[in-house]
Design goal:
With 439 residues, the protein is of the alpha+beta class. It folds into 2 domains: 215 residues, Metalloenzyme, LuxS/M16 peptidase-like (Cytochrome Bc1 Complex, Chain A, domain 1), CATH 3.30.830; 177 residues, Metalloenzyme, LuxS/M16 peptidase-like (Cytochrome Bc1 Complex, Chain A, domain 1, 2-Layer Sandwich), CATH 3.30.830. Helices cover 44% and strands 20% of the residues. The strands form 4 sheets. It has a 6-stranded mixed sheet, sandwiched between helices. Strand 4 and strand 5 form a beta hairpin. The C terminus is likely disordered.
């Protein structure tokens, strides 16, 4: 009974105001009385993996990096740069692109209506020319080089290249200098028509605001009017469950060797958040901060404190990745595999499972107290067709027995790939005078 009361209280605390507008846009608002700021996110189900699709009876095939490139270009229109407009309202704006979504956001403590108009206007009225695209290609080319220098990111992309033969998750979110050179205004307009339609988007706001204020902004931008529903068919190449490669090694200017261990899993249905939460709990039991393995690795100095696992799932793809730094990565890999085998045979530790579940509860509830996290949480779950309250209910229903059953099917060593990053010996070196001048 106490647990049921707790779950009910958590669900009620996470109850959001939710409305689907005549245009098809999903709007979520969490008024937070007493807070001075408001965080707003405008998100679309369009990310780096959405490269092949059919719209208006035409097939569209995109080079890598278009979704990220489009995110950058959305901030520019005939009247100038949207960042300058946000600066005039006092809002702090940003945006990001992931594998399966693009999000535009801002935080404001005043002039909320004006900031909403900037956000809805820039996303609702895209503007691209050959000249503005050419300018952006140079800017994003520099960003791509920055990602190439990130060991953490190279581990993820390297593991995806090993695990997948053809799924577009193999490609870097930002693309390559060569791939973004192929982008045209027509490609960007095709993407806007297909994926920036209101029925494919979510608007979430949390903080010092109300549903009425958000809906009034939507009305000013025509989002309260019915619109034709864009029927977009994503085109996928069937991905086998075999590996593209079992191992990959590269060198980089890092001070300590980095490693990644990836397991290829069967893709989950779009609305199957239950399995994703369950996999996450299993990882917490295997390698989380409260696990026996983590304590051993940390106490013996075998890995850095950042070692851990994560679930990466998008349409057509699901994998489980463990990453970290270690002077003895093969020893860590062997200890990880032994721990997976042990827990698979004995079952997850019931006490640790309960602690991990409570930790997830705590993260969900902690996010409700912060305007940025609260809006992000609403938008993330809404893009998958769920509310925060439903997520809490799903978490509450999971049992250790569910984890035991799932562990019999996932983390198979036959579908495991390993990625190594070895130091190239240049970490910490000072650039010579010639290099400094070139920069």
């Amino acid at each position: 009974m106490p647990e049921q009361n707790t779950n009910r209280a958590l669900t009620e605390a996470a109850a959001d105001e939710w409305k689907v507008l005549p245009s098809g846009l999903t709007v979520l608002v969490r008024p937070m009385p007493g807070y001075s700021g408001t965080h707003v996110i405008y998100a679309t189900r369009f990310g780096s993996i959405d490269r092949d699709f059919r719209v208006d009876g035409r097939e569209v095939h995109l080079p890598a990096g278009v979704a990220h490139f489009l995110e950058h270009k959305m901030f520019e229109d005939e009247d100038g740069d949207a960042f300058a407009k946000f600066a005039k309202t006092g809002a702090n704006a940003n945006a990001f692109t992931s594998f399966d979504r693009t999000c535009y956001l801002f935080t404001a403590t005043e002039q909320l209506d004006e900031s909403l108009d900037v956000l809805l206007g820039m996303v609702g009225r895209p503007y691209f020319t050959e000249q503005t695209i050419a300018k952006e290609q140079g800017i994003i080319g520099q960003e791509i080089k920055m990602y190439d220098d990130s060991a953490d990111w190279r581990l993820i992309t390297g593991l995806c290249e090993c695990l997948y033969h053809s799924h577009p998750i193999r490609s870097d979110i930002a693309g390559t200098v060569e791939s973004i050179a192929e982008i045209t205004p027509e490609m960007l307009y095709d993407c806007c028509k297909a994926f920036y339609a209101p029925n494919n988007m979510v608007l979430a706001a949390a903080g010092s605001t109300s549903m009425e204020q958000i809906l009034a902004a939507c009305a000013r931008h025509g989002l309260m009017e019915a619109r034709p529903v864009e029927r977009v068919q994503r085109l996928w190449t069937e991905e086998p469950m075999t590996l593209a490669a079992a191992e990959k090694t590269i060198t980089m200017p890092v001070s300590k060797p980095c490693f990644g261990i990836g397991f290829k899993e069967r893709p989950l249905q779009h609305d199957d958040l239950r399995s994703e939460i369950l996999y996450d709990l299993i990882l917490c039991c295997i390698s989380g901060g409260m696990s026996r393995l983590y304590r051993k690795l940390y106490d013996e100095g075998l890995t850095n404190p950042g070692f851990g696992g994560e679930v990466l799932r998008v349409d057509g793809c699901c994998c489980i990745l463990f990453t970290g730094e270690s002077d003895v990565p093969d020893t860590v890999k062997q200890l990880l595999l032994e721990e997976i085998r042990r827990i698979r045979a004995e079952g997850v530790d019931r006490e640790i499972f309960t602690l991990c579940k409570n930790e997830k509860y705590g993260q969900l509830i902690e996010n409700l107290e912060n305007v940025e996290d609260s809006a992000s949480q609403m938008a993330d779950f809404a893009l998958s067709g769920q509310t925060v309250a439903q997520q809490i209910a799903t978490l509450a229903a999971l049992t250790a027995e569910d984890a035991d059953a799932a562990l019999q099917k996932i983390l198979s060593e036959e579908r495991m790939a390993v990625m190594y990053i070895q130091p190239d010996g240049t970490a910490g070196e000072e650039p010579d005078d010639e290099e400094e001048m070139e920069e």
